[in-house]
């Protein structure tokens, strides 16, 4: 009992200790919870551990991700985490994958080699995917999340507990494109616009995702002709035909010109759409000659960090010009086809969004916000601290022991309370895990989704990109008609993908014979054993803003059970949609959700609650062929 | 404007970005000014320090007489093979400091008792002292000293599958409790400037655009004026609140084209808020009144908190109300009228702050006075029994705790008593039950009767500690499991952050964690 494992053997008992030793373990994520977890599993006696993470280490990670130090900034999280743990115990077998969980190599066969999987993820999409892979491979999964002082841990075991998707998650809040482009009324609208502006100017060329005044605003329909005429008068012919990206290209991305276009000329165009301003306060044109008095400084700003100071309008103009100049240099230095991606921790990119959002707020009479606050909203930042992650990772081990003892029935969904005041209050709050939802379209026996739409107006693209990939989290959807023909096939190579996108995507569903009552099978080429039946119902009318409605999903009941969100890391909600043509097709703009978490009361006697954010962070940080801004 | 420090966040801000969003820059400064003493670099000790070094605690000092063994390597991440035979305090300090170069760390290779005997002042330098995996009886002299100095002591233990955390402090005061409060808009008792501003708004004279952007507090105040024409009292019952909301609804305009009622979001907002606006609650919440009635409030010590409470008492006696927070939530309004409203609340809040400042016996920083006023509705004082009372006194409330825990599946109370009995065993035999050459069955009988002794001495009748609990404690043999230590270390460091930042409310006072179930209970006796 004097070797290094003496204590664990003694407390756990020899039998459990042996099971831990023989367990092949997969840890998905080496961030906030992941670092703590890797340490805990190494010290609990796990000998064969795989870890996957596609991220690299950033400065803002170091306040909690203790396997990383200053000198590791920029390196692979998975690899450095492995090295740090091995330094402590060189005899362990740790395999690090610096890769995206969605890559082909993480196939069903890959998952099948493990005995237990632990998630330490920061986004819904990856959580859904690992959930489906573990169900397919029939491997137990321990799911976890943290946000500030709140956190949670739960266990998913096929057929015994509910799966990660048995209860629908609240969808991310979205804003109509017209609100973003024409009539913002909150700072959030301005931030969404500023992030769109960034991607539109410097991101992947995407000529449909414009930020300029939109003449197709439904509010204008009554006097549409008038407004088009009005717009004609304010724009010369050339400017009218170009979107903002093309305009910027033809003006060599000149920061001063860009400033004038966005905050002077486009505002004049908006003002010409008179019917928008009948019930609203009119925007004001940014008058560059009048703003250098510091009229916007608010109450005294002593005792705040530089980042928390409110910029004056003049500061915003200066910052805009400076950051737009920097971005111009970077963008023009990109190889052909390369582009910039927005990153909240890149100071120049953040300055640009902060300045542009505040200038837009100024134009629309919306109170300005500090860079600190805008960063929270734009980056969907979830506060994250070492202490919470340590507690969560400790709880994961407790549940892992129960799983390895074969005692799934005693596993609990554990929520972390923020405070434990007074007698009887709990620091942790375990509740029984619900049974599987028989109607769940992921793990249910007869998985079915019914969608109401107009098949003569909705395209295959909307079905594939929006409904299947975005709403139902499929990775490589395959849709088979009742006849056995494949309407959507998973492309094997670039040529097939090209054919799918150019020949199949533009077609309407009706052209494939889909009408009221048609059912087809949906599978996922990347998620083995995933299968559901999709039933179409005819919609009475077609609204381009919401081209379809999911009528009988798993369950339509609102659910506050909470699904911990961050991993003490944070994702970037808007990155995903800002460059997505599909999002614009639907006339919806994904928005950065409020950074706060809401606390809801569970049915337990102690109501400190569970965490749920208005939207999960969907970090689509695909590393392929993008150069960071 | 150049690339100056006023705009771009510093390295420090970036490193701590995710936590500044929880406790603010002033919380971070408090953390950076704190010096924490950790007695024993056990796994629990190093995990606790790790969670403090990462967010940037100012200084830590480890007091530990032991040397690194092979078994330590099996549970403690902060030792490497090369450290075997070296003092634990030195090895741990070396590796923990790698995590954050702005933190200072010291090691003292000695027992806590020796240090205390040689230099009692040593412990007076700390903001908080954490004793890890030490029996309670051995802590009494230190606890007495810290109690007199009003330095909080945390006693933390990871004992097999059981975790234990106890806060010992005569008093801990919290200004920013972060307890969610209702918006403080004073609509049922408006200050004169607010009322005058509301009355200057003639709704009928406004264009539809302006009318639909009047901030909801103004609508409610105008509503109350109208209500009072026919009612003696404010709406209190459900029906009255509904009637009030109905009255506001009737004030909405018809659309310009006459096609029905205009969609005025500000009115919808006002109607939705009726329930909370007219809830019956005293101007000064009972918890705050209790603070004002505390003897320390009338005769404050040198602490800023009680000085401020003393000034608050003077304020309440004049205004029969707390200082206004000054915060105005987001609402549907055009920016001109929103800013006008915000100005009113801000100047009233500033006037209230000025009153408090004038009423103070000694000068305190403006920012502190402002924070105090802003959070006056959520002030908290935490007082725990002393360790001496717990160990030697007949504690009546312990019987209550026993009665409350009947049927508790975590068996927190039983494990608490069993842990006390383990200490008693340790005091007698200088080893924990189940350790050394002794088979644990052998020690179980003695431990069981010691449990009965602990209960009897504390005056708790009619309770017995289950044999299975006793046997479990013997089986653990005080061995430390990493995952339990990691959990308790997380909890302990969280409480330390709360204590040194004086933000959020620490647990009062004993937490027992059952690592088999993954559940915990707070005992307060």
UniProtKB/TrEMBL annotation, chain A:
Q: What is its main location?
A: nucleus
Residues of the Ubiquitin/SUMO-activating enzyme ubiquitin-like domain:
451-542
State its location(s). Answer: Nucleus
Q: Name one GO cellular component term.
A: SUMO activating enzyme complex
**What name appears for this protein in its UniProt entry?**
SUMO-activating enzyme subunit
Give the region (Disordered) as residue ranges: 208-249, 555-629
Annotated keywords = ATP-binding, Metal-binding, Nucleotide-binding, Nucleus, Transferase, Ubl conjugation pathway, Zinc
**Which GO BP terms sit in this record?**
protein sumoylation
Q: Name one Pfam family in it.
A: UBA_E1_SCCH
Q: Where is the Ubiquitin-activating enzyme SCCH domain?
A: 315-375
Q: How does it assemble?
A: Heterodimer.
Binding locations of Zn(2+): 163, 166, 440, 443
Provide the THIF-type NAD/FAD binding fold domain boundaries: 11-441
The pathway that the record names for this protein is: Protein modification; protein sumoylation
Q: Where is the composition biased (Basic and acidic residues)?
A: 222-242
TrEMBL record, chain B:
Q: Does the keyword Nucleotidyltransferase apply?
A: no
The UniProt entry's GO CC annotations, sorted and at most eight, read: cytoplasm
- What residue stretches are annotated with the THIF-type NAD/FAD binding fold domain? 16-521
Q: Which Pfam families match?
A: ThiF
Gene3D superfamilies named among the record's database cross-references: NAD(P)-binding Rossmann-like Domain
Could you provide one GO biological process annotation from this protein's UniProt record? protein neddylation
Which pathway or pathways does this protein act in? Protein modification; protein neddylation
Q: Which UniProt keywords apply?
A: Ubl conjugation pathway
Query: Per the record's keyword annotation, is Transmembrane helix included, yes or no?
Result: no
Q: Name one GO molecular function term.
A: NEDD8 activating enzyme activity
| Family under the similarity heading | Belongs to the ubiquitin-activating E1 family. ULA1 subfamily.
Protein's name in the database: NEDD8-activating enzyme E1 regulatory subunit
């Amino acid at each position: 009992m004097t070797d290094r494992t003496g204590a664990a053997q003694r407390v756990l008992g020899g039998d459990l200790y042996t099971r831990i030793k023989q367990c092949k373990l997969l840890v998905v994520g080496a961030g906030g919870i992941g670092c703590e977890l890797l340490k805990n599993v190494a010290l609990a006696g796990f000998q064969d551990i795989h870890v996957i993470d596609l991220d690299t280490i950033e400065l803002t990670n170091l306040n909690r991700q203790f396997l990383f130090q200053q000198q590791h900034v920029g390196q692979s999280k998975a690899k450095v985490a492995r090295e740090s743990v091995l330094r402590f115990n060189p005899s362990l077998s740790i395999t690090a994958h610096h890769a995206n969980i969605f890559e082909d190599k993480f196939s069903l066969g890959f998952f099948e080699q493990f005995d237990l999987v632990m998630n330490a993820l920061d986004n819904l999409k990856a959580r859904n995917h690992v959930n489906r892979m573990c169900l397919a491979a029939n491997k137990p999964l321990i799911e976890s999340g943290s946000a500030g002082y709140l956190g949670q841990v739960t266990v998913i075991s096929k057929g015994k507990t509910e799966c990660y998707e048995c209860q629908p998650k609240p969808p991310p809040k979205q804003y109509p494109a017209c609100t973003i482009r024409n009539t913002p009324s909150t700072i959030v609208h301005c931030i969404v616009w500023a992030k769109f502006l960034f991607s539109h100017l410097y991101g992947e060329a995407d000529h449909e995702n414009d930020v300029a005044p939109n003449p197709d605003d439904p509010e204008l329909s009554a006097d549409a002709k008038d407004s088009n005429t009005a717009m004609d008068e304010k724009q010369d012919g050339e400017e009218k035909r170009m979107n903002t990206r093309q305009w910027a290209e033809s003006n060599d991305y000149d920061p001063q010109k860009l400033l004038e276009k966005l905050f002077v000329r486009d505002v004049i165009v908006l003002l010409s759409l008179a019917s928008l301003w009948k019930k609203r306060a009119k925007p004001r044109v940014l008058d560059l000659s009048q703003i250098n008095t510091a009229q916007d400084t608010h109450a005294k700003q002593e005792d705040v960090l530089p980042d928390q100071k409110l910029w004056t309008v003049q500061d915003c103009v200066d910052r805009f010009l400076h950051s737009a100049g920097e971005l111009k240099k970077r963008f023009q230095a990109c190889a052909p086809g390369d582009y910039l991606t927005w990153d909240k921790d890149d100071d120049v990119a953040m300055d640009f969004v902060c300045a542009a959002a505040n200038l837009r707020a100024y134009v629309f009479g919306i109170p300005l916000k500090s860079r600190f606050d805008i960063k929270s909203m734009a980056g969907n930042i979830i506060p994250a601290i070492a202490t919470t992650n340590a507690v969560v990772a400790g709880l994961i081990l407790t549940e892992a022991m129960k799983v390895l003892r074969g005692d799934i029935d005693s596993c609990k969904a554990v929520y972390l309370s923020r405070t434990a005041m007074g007698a009887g209050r709990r620091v942790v709050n375990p509740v029984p895990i619900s049974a599987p939802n028989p109607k769940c379209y992921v793990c249910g026996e007869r998985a079915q989704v019914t969608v109401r739409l107009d098949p003569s107006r909705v395209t295959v693209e909307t079905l594939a990109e929006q409904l299947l990939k975005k709403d139902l989290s499929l990775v490589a959807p395959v849709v088979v008609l009742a006849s056995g023909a494949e309407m959507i096939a998973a492309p094997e190579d670039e040529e097939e993908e090209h054919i799918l996108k150019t020949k199949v995507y533009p077609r309407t569903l009706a052209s494939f014979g889909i009408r009221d009552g048609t059912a087809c099978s949906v599978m996922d080429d990347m998620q083995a054993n995933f299968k559901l039946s999709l039933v179409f119902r005819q919609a009475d009318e077609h609204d381009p803003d919401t081209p379809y409605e999911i009528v009988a999903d798993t369950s339509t009941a609102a659910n506050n059970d909470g699904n911990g969100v961050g991993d003490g890391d944070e994702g970037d909600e808007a990155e995903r949609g800002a460059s997505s043509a599909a999002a614009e097709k639907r006339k919806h703009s994904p928005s950065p959700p409020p950074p706060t978490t809401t606390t809801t009361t569970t049915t337990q006697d102690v109501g400190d609650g569970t965490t749920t954010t208005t939207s999960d962070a969907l970090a689509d940080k695909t590393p392929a062929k993008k150069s960071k801004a | 404007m150049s690339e100056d420090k006023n705009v771009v966040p510093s390295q420090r801000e970036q490193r701590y970005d995710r936590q500044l969003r929880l406790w603010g820059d002033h919380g971070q400064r408090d953390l950076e000014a704190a010096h924490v003493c950790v007695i024993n670099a056990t796994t629990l000790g190093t995990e606790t320090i790790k969670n403090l070094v990462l967010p940037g605690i100012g200084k830590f000092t480890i007091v530990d007489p032991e040397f690194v063994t092979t078994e330590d390597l099996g549970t403690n991440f902060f030792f490497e093979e090369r450290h075997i035979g070296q003092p634990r305090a030195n090895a741990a300090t070396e590796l923990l400091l790698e995590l954050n170069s702005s933190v200072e760390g010291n090691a003292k290779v000695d027992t806590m008792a020796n240090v205390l005997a040689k230099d009692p002042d040593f412990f007076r330098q700390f903001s908080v002292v954490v004793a890890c995996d030490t029996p309670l009886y051995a802590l009494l002299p230190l606890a007495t000293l810290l109690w007199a100095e009003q330095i909080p002591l945390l006693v933390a233990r990871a004992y097999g599958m059981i975790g234990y955390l106890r806060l010992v402090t005569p008093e801990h005061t919290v200004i920013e409790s972060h307890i969610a409060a209702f918006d403080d808009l004073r609509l049922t008792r408006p200050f004169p400037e607010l009322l005058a501003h509301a009355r200057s708004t003639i709704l009928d004279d406004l264009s539809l655009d302006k009318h639909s952007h009047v901030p909801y507090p103004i609508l409610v105040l105008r509503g109350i004026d109208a209500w009072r024409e026919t009612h003696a009292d404010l709406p209190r019952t459900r029906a009255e609140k509904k009637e009030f909301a109905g009255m506001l609804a009737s004030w909405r305009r018809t659309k310009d084209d006459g096609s029905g009622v205009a969609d005025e979001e500000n009115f919808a907002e006002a109607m939705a808020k009726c329930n909370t606006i007219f809830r019956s609650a005293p101007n000064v919440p009972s918890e705050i009144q209790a603070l004002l009635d505390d003897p320390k409030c009338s005769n404050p010590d040198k602490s800023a908190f009680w000085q401020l409470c003393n000034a608050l008492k003077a304020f309440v006696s004049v205004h029969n109300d707390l200082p206004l927070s000054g915060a105005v939530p987001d609402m549907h309004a055009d920016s001109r009228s929103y800013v006008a409203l915000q100005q009113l609340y801000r100047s009233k809040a500033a006037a209230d702050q000025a009153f408090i400042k004038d009423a103070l016996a000694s000068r305190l920083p403006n920012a502190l006075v402002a924070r105090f006023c802003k959070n006056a509705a959520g002030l908290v004082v935490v007082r725990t029994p002393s360790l001496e009372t717990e160990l030697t006194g007949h504690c009546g409330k312990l019987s209550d705790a026993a009665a409350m825990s009947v049927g508790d599946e975590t068996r927190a109370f039983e494990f608490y008593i069993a842990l006390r009995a383990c200490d008693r065993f340790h005091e007698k035999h200088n080893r924990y039950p189940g350790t050394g050459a002794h088979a644990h069955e052998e020690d179980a009988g003695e431990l069981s009767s010691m449990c009965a002794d602990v209960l009897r001495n504390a005056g708790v009748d009619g309770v017995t500690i289950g044999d299975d609990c006793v046997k479990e404690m013997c089986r653990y043999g005080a061995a430390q499991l990493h995952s339990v230590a990691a959990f308790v270390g997380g909890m302990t460091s969280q409480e330390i952050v709360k204590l040194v930042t004086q933000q959020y409310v620490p647990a009062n006072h004993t937490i027992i964690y059952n690592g088999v179930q993954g559940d915990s209970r707070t005992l307060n006796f």
